[in-house]
Amino acid sequence: MVSTPASARSPGDAPPAASTRPVKPAATGSANAADPVRPKAARKPATPKRPKAGKRGDLVAVSWRKPAENGSKITGYVVTPFRNGKAQAPSRFDASQTSRAVKISPTSGKWTFTVAAVNDAGTGPASPHSKAAVPMALPTAPAIVAVTAGTTTALLSWIRPSDDGGSPVTQFVITPYINGAAQAAQVVPPVTTATVTGLTPAVTYTFTVAARTALGTGPESARSAPVTTAISPSVSYIGPEGTVNAAYMGNVTVANGVPPYTWSVAPSPISGDLPPGLALNPLSPAVTGVPTTVGQYPVVFRVVDADGREGSVLTVITINARPQIVVPNLALGEVGAAYSQRLTVLGGTPPFTWSVAAGSLPPSVTLNTVNGFIAGTPTTAGTYGADIRVTDAFGVTDVLQIRIVVQARSVVALSVDDASVNFGDEIGFTVDIGPGEAQGSVSLFSSAGTRTLLGTFPVTRNRATFTSRAPDFGTNQFEVRYDSTNTNAVVFSNTVNVQATGVAGQALITQFRQSGVGGPLDQYVSIYNNSPIPMPVSGIRIEAADGTIVTIPPTRLPLPVGQAFLVAAADYSLGAVAEPDLPLAADPVEGDCTVVVGPVCSLGAVGGLRVRFPDTDTPGTGTIADAAGSTPGFYRGSPLPAFTHTPTVRNIFGRLREAGRPLDTGNTRADFRFLTTTGGIQGGIPSAIGTGNPRNADGPRIVNTLLQTTLLDSGVSASAAPNREYVAPTPTSRGQLIIRRTLTNRASTPASQIKLRISSLSELNGPPPPAGTSPRPPYADLQWRNPATLTSTFTLSDGRTVTVNNLRMDPPSEDPPGGGFYSEATLPLPLGGLPPGGTLNFSLTFSVESAGSFWGAWDVLALGIDPPAVATAATKRTNRAQVNGDAGVVPRELAQPRPDQARAHRQRHESN
């Protein structure tokens, strides 16, 4: 009795081989693939490139480039030294700089370094090792080229050191001097112009600048010219960018100082004369002329007042080329579609003015005179030519002729391959778009009632072909929206209707009862979606043999694949196990049921239930999906046994399960078992021990492919302790069977709740052996029991000591007598759930009422993780892989064994 990813199996069992039934992959772009786009989770930063390293004494400057952040801002770096290849203690730094000093000791040896970036997702991979650190020097001195004083500030400009010593400059240190005495230094980022603050008015200052790297601070520059705050000339330049061959004017402005002033252009290592064609009047502040050469010209303007005090400022004068209109391929226009095209200009001096010099734009399309944006909604097809003029700030112009083509409004025609299909079948759609050029995509909508997006597909050569499925029973109305990428058109198609007919077995009754310990209205029925896609439950009719009818109201959402919809009457007694999706006691006023007896809705008194799809326009004539009962018309194949009197114990009719899925052979009597919490003859019918554990649409999902159970001790056989302990029964005492396993979360998210549900067990009047097995009679009679202790400790064959959780049955199972089919146990989980890759050890304890071959299986149910793929139901088009978010190809673990594997598979299900 061993659990595989699909369900528990016999000792030594291995997962069965995949089904040989071919599975056709879904067509690219299938509508069912149109799941909501989820934001990508942040990842650890990328690997930095190889860093550089240089040393000076016992300090090493390590510098690197910032790597890709991968969705989360880098918050720091880890720098790891290696001496002769052996890692030393790492240093951690914030992310403000990418050059850091690391202290080494001893200084001898070959030192290399790696760098790793850190963000909220963790520490990324380390970079390759740097080359061995080589000796480095401090940077040389900068050179001050301009200084001008304000009232309490001074503006300095300088040039960078000619040699940074091999390590990037990270800061500059500015030191003010008063009468040769150094004042408090100010540190600025690695810029070349900065303002010194906090100076005293009417005091004469000189300044020096020194460059700082990770290895230290280099020598100071030569001192600047002296300036006196609030007294020396305060110089600035006000001038625009210029255009070649256009008249230019700028002004050097002066505050403070004593006139008259003398203006000049001071030569420096980074500046020269004014741009060719411009000149400075030495007796006035004007810079005038007609520039002749494009470029950027650093210029230092120097002003000396009547008392010989001076000030200077560094500025950059930009001379642009003549303006030239640049137009990419002009967009194609379409009648009724928003048109937009931005024109750009190279050269020239802003601001620019745009105009139509000749010709005309398409009707209702205009040119924005400020930004050159052509926009509007064309009303008439045709070809339109216009001369567009741009004029810059100096009146220099450029004219370009453009041509805009506007095509006729697109017509979108939608057609289908088949207007009548089985629910769940794929439908072929074709979209033709014309008469003009069509590029872009079409979005398919189901437009009956609320418009629902089913998928988006590309348009190729004016056509789109794709497949989708009808989301509703009966008449489905479809339309597409064409979104053009070449004309911005948004156009809807005609609508087409497709009739979707339900297929028997696509909805299955998995559990039901029409009377319980709470009385005649202690009733419920669980309807399982056995189709390949989410099933609309609105309008589905639940009919009882006595004429009672319950119609699920239109407010209910579609039922996911592999989930059940739970309908319960007034005195439903299992609310603690599963809340009903449709509580009938509160709903008579909604008109969703035909009341036969009493003032409230019921599920009928006796005889069974059936489910009818709303796939026809005539009420009461829809396809019968499933039936389970003893009255003709309310069963398939053979009927269930009829009660001679109403049972007085907890009871249900429950559908058997194989490999995690409801059994559907088309024979009601073979598919169902009558279960009670006491067993024996109840209501005149032999019962197996089991419990009513219904599922609702929010209940745990069977996730055998994601939560896997394996042997507790893989070093010994499945039949050896501690994996299995067996005590045979005697004529005077029961035997005992204990199965111990390890459950592993193979999902990518934590499981917030995990349950085990018995799906097959050799017991009196219970389920038959699982398909593909052939245990030899006599068959053992097993009953699930609560263990004496909650945990046990074992030493495994590899020496590890582990704790095993001995699982106890969840209510409504009763001990004694025990549990069987549908009985459940909840696994104790750590705080926050069972994480990805997490494991949990558990055991199941059974009493052996009689000796013989035995079998058993359980399903793993969970909340908090994605559901697994679910096998498809039989439809008109078979063997097609499902691509909806709730369905997929038949998992290997759920497939039945091939005929040539049957013998080995059967042997694995047998035991003493």
Automatic annotation (TrEMBL):
Keyword terms, alphabetized: Carbohydrate metabolism, Glycosidase, Hydrolase, Polysaccharide degradation, Repeat
**Chain residue ranges for the region called Disordered:** 1-59, 876-912
Positions the record marks as coiled coil are: none
Task: Tell me the domain of life.
Answer: Bacteria
Enumerate the SMART domains for this protein.
FN3
Task: Quote the biased-composition stretches of kind Basic residues, using this chain's numbering.
Answer: 40-54
**Where in this chain does the record put each Fibronectin type-III domain?**
44-137, 138-232
PANTHER family to which the protein is assigned, alphabetical = TITIN
Protein name from the UniProt record: Fibronectin type-III domain-containing protein
Organism, by scientific name, is Micromonospora qiuiae
